Amino acid sequence: MLVCAPTGAGKTDVAMLSILRVLSQHLLPPIAGSRTPDVPRIAKDDFKIIYVAPMKALAAEVVRKFGKRLAWIGIQVRELTGSCAELRCRPLLLVLTLLAAIHSR
Q1: What is the CB neighbour count within 10 angstroms for residue 59?
Q2: I want to staple 76 with a disulfide (CB 3.0 to 4.6 A). Which of 1, 24, 62, 91 is the partner?
Q3: Would you kindly state where each structural domain of the chain is located, as residue ranges?
Q4: Nearest to residue 49, comparing CAs of 95, 98, 89?
């Protein structure tokens, strides 16, 4: 999905709604007798979500915002830079920054 709108129009919130929709499509049935029955179980190995940000500063902000909103269900949000070593934790949601060279073309 590509969303184009002015600053402050809610593009990040639209992305969060899209992320929540994908998560809802991968829900697993609750485990009987679980200590945390209110926390949904998600088939995390079945998909990845990628959010592309135009600037590194915005990517860092989105990582913080999404990470805070999704932590309660165990979703890891990470920013992907040039180093693939950061992916050892196998995050479900990656936030990427477009290169300036790509933007200028």
Answers
A1: 21
A2: 91
A3: 11-29+41-103
A4: 95
